[in-house]
Amino acid sequence: MPNKTIYVSDDDLALYKRAQELAGNLSQAISTALRRFVEMEEGRLEGFDEITVRVGRGTGRKQRFSGVLLAEGGRSNKNGYEAFKVYRSRTGKFVLHADRSNLYDHTTTVNGDEQDSTGWRSWIGSFSSNQTWSMAQGESTLHIVETVEELRDLIPADLYTLVEDAAEQPTVEDLDI
């Protein structure tokens, strides 16, 4: 195995020491960091960004990938709102991040009986002193598909048209100006 000498400034010595403590093997830690750096820089040079999205209910968990935003849009109905973002990943797949949330949950007590209603129209009507309001928890999902056609049933038609057009365009167009 070839040896490489890395010169470390006094200012960075603590960083290298901590990396070795965390990884157990400094060479492995450096290789892992360099691999990630090269992958992200090559992607950036190709026009891709590091995308981090939340997935799940409420605050959910974070998921990260390298991609470029193709289009975004949303739709609403009486129960809530759906927001969509469609990306092309660095590997050529299409990634749909969908964020769905109810606008409000509204409960009214009338003559001792609880009545639930949801949506923004629920506040119109009788205002009694026995009402409770709360923001409903949303849910975000991530769908990964191979082709644009697989997105057709997952997003609104007008957004699908935008994605279809954007998918045919290069990630970055270099201009000689």
Map the helices and strands.
Blueprint: H1 13-23, H2 26-45, E1 49-57, E2 61-77, E3 80-89, E4 94-102, E5 105-110, E6 113-118, E7 131-134, E8 139-145, H3 157-167
Antiparallel strand pairs: 1-2, 1-8, 2-3, 3-4, 4-8, 5-6, 5-7
Short description:
The chain is an alpha+beta fold and 177 residues long.
Q: Tell how many strands the DSSP assignment holds.
A: 8
Please describe the biggest sheet, giving its number of strands, its sense, and whether it closes into a barrel. 5 strands, antiparallel, barrel
**Shape label:** elongated
Q: Return Rg in Å.
A: 24 Å
Between the first and last Cα atoms, what is the distance in angstroms?
47 Å
**Residues in β-strands, percent:** 35-45%
Strand order of the largest sheet: 1-2-3-4-8
Order of helices and strands: HHEEEEEEEEH
What is the mean pLDDT?
Answer: 82
Tally the structural domains: 2
Helical percentage: 10-25%
Count of DSSP H/I helices: 3
Give the low-pLDDT segments: 117-129, 131-135
Q: Determine the structural class based on helices, strands and strand pairing.
A: alpha+beta
